[in-house]
């Protein structure tokens, strides 16, 4: 399979962490739309949102998605990539979309341990657990709509990689 693999899911589900390990397992390239924007603009998500609002950030991440999409890459997307119908359709048409799904409490525990506030400015102004519950309620259907496969991402990263490989009927490169 040479199609790109897109990882979607909420903040903290492991799109970046699992994406790096998956790309390594498949001997593929890895790109991350949040990191792409950071490198290209020299601005964090918080900086972009402060200057351009969330609409500005969302427009930039759609452009980033188009720019990084190529054969044989694993793409870790931002947690809100699925909000735009056009992004969901683009990913489904261009590649294979994997939803890394984990319960709210696991996501909250991970984000509290490593908040990275510059890349994860508040979406709701609420405490982290409340925010995640609210965001998952609003987006669960969108992650599922976008996805070809839903993978339990509550396990350790290597186990999640193995589950993705099994869903794709793909073997580790070496
Ligand atoms: N499967 C896992 N098991 C344990 N910890 C994990 C797992 N996946 C990710 N983590 C940890 O959770 C934190 C968030 O992971 P990561 O940055 O990969 O999430 P993300 O889905 O890319 O989030 P974002 O949408 O904000 O980019 C990191 O500190 C990472 O080490
Ligand atoms: O869930 C979200 O809306 C976001 C997740 C992060 O990956 C970043 O893309 C940004 O902080 C927005
Ligand atoms: Mg990430």
TrEMBL record:
<keyword id="KW-0418">Kinase</keyword>
<keyword id="KW-0547">Nucleotide-binding</keyword>
<feature type="binding site">
    <location>
        <position position="120"/>
    </location>
    <ligand>
        <name>ATP</name>
    </ligand>
</feature>
<feature type="binding site">
    <location>
        <position position="16"/>
    </location>
    <ligand>
        <name>Mg(2+)</name>
    </ligand>
</feature>
<feature type="binding site">
    <location>
        <position position="79"/>
    </location>
    <ligand>
        <name>substrate</name>
    </ligand>
</feature>
<dbReference type="InterPro" id="IPR023000">
    <property type="entry name" value="Shikimate_kinase_CS"/>
</dbReference>
<feature type="binding site">
    <location>
        <position position="139"/>
    </location>
    <ligand>
        <name>substrate</name>
    </ligand>
</feature>
<keyword id="KW-0963">Cytoplasm</keyword>
<dbReference type="GO" id="GO:0008652">
    <property type="term" value="P:amino acid biosynthetic process"/>
</dbReference>
<keyword id="KW-0028">Amino-acid biosynthesis</keyword>
<protein>
    <recommendedName>
        <fullName>Shikimate kinase 2</fullName>
        <ecNumber>2.7.1.71</ecNumber>
    </recommendedName>
</protein>
<dbReference type="InterPro" id="IPR031322">
    <property type="entry name" value="Shikimate/glucono_kinase"/>
</dbReference>
<keyword id="KW-0067">ATP-binding</keyword>
<dbReference type="GO" id="GO:0009423">
    <property type="term" value="P:chorismate biosynthetic process"/>
</dbReference>
<dbReference type="GO" id="GO:0005829">
    <property type="term" value="C:cytosol"/>
</dbReference>
<dbReference type="GO" id="GO:0009073">
    <property type="term" value="P:aromatic amino acid family biosynthetic process"/>
</dbReference>
<feature type="binding site">
    <location>
        <position position="32"/>
    </location>
    <ligand>
        <name>Mg(2+)</name>
    </ligand>
</feature>
<dbReference type="InterPro" id="IPR000623">
    <property type="entry name" value="Shikimate_kinase/TSH1"/>
</dbReference>
<dbReference type="InterPro" id="IPR027417">
    <property type="entry name" value="P-loop_NTPase"/>
</dbReference>
<feature type="binding site">
    <location>
        <position position="58"/>
    </location>
    <ligand>
        <name>substrate</name>
    </ligand>
</feature>
<feature type="binding site">
    <location>
        <begin position="12"/>
        <end position="17"/>
    </location>
    <ligand>
        <name>ATP</name>
    </ligand>
</feature>
<comment type="subunit">
    <text>Monomer.</text>
</comment>
<comment type="pathway">
    <text>Metabolic intermediate biosynthesis; chorismate biosynthesis; chorismate from D-erythrose 4-phosphate and phosphoenolpyruvate: step 5/7.</text>
</comment>
<keyword id="KW-0460">Magnesium</keyword>
<feature type="region of interest" description="LID domain">
    <location>
        <begin position="112"/>
        <end position="126"/>
    </location>
</feature>
<keyword id="KW-0479">Metal-binding</keyword>
<dbReference type="InterPro" id="IPR027544">
    <property type="entry name" value="Shikimate_kinase_2"/>
</dbReference>
<comment type="function">
    <text>Catalyzes the specific phosphorylation of the 3-hydroxyl group of shikimic acid using ATP as a cosubstrate.</text>
</comment>
<feature type="binding site">
    <location>
        <position position="34"/>
    </location>
    <ligand>
        <name>substrate</name>
    </ligand>
</feature>
<dbReference type="GO" id="GO:0005524">
    <property type="term" value="F:ATP binding"/>
</dbReference>
<dbReference type="Pfam" id="PF01202">
    <property type="entry name" value="SKI"/>
</dbReference>
<keyword id="KW-0057">Aromatic amino acid biosynthesis</keyword>
<comment type="similarity">
    <text>Belongs to the shikimate kinase family. AroL subfamily.</text>
</comment>
<dbReference type="GO" id="GO:0004765">
    <property type="term" value="F:shikimate kinase activity"/>
</dbReference>
<dbReference type="GO" id="GO:0000287">
    <property type="term" value="F:magnesium ion binding"/>
</dbReference>
<keyword id="KW-0808">Transferase</keyword>
């Amino acid at each position: 399979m040479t199609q790109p693999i897109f990882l979607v899911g909420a903040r903290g589900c492991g799109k970046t962490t699992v994406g790096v390990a998956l790309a390594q397992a498949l001997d593929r390239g890895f790109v991350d739309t949040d990191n792409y924007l950071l490198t290209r603009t020299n601005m964090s998500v918080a900086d972009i949102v402060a200057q351009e609002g969330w609409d500005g950030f969302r427009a930039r991440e759609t452009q980033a998605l188009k720019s990084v999409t190529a054969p044989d890459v694993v793409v870790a997307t931002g947690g809100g990539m699925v909000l735009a119908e056009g992004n969901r359709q683009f990913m489904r048409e261009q590649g294979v979309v994997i939803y890394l799904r984990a319960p709210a409490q696991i996501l909250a525990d991970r984000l509290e341990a490593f908040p990275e506030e510059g890349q994860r400015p508040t979406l709701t102004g609420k405490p982290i657990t409340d925010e995640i519950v609210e965001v998952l309620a609003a987006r669960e259907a969108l992650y599922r709509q976008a996805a070809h496969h839903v993978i339990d991402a509550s396990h350790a990263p290597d186990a999640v990689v193995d589950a993705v490989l099994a869903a794709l009927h793909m073997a580790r490169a070496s």
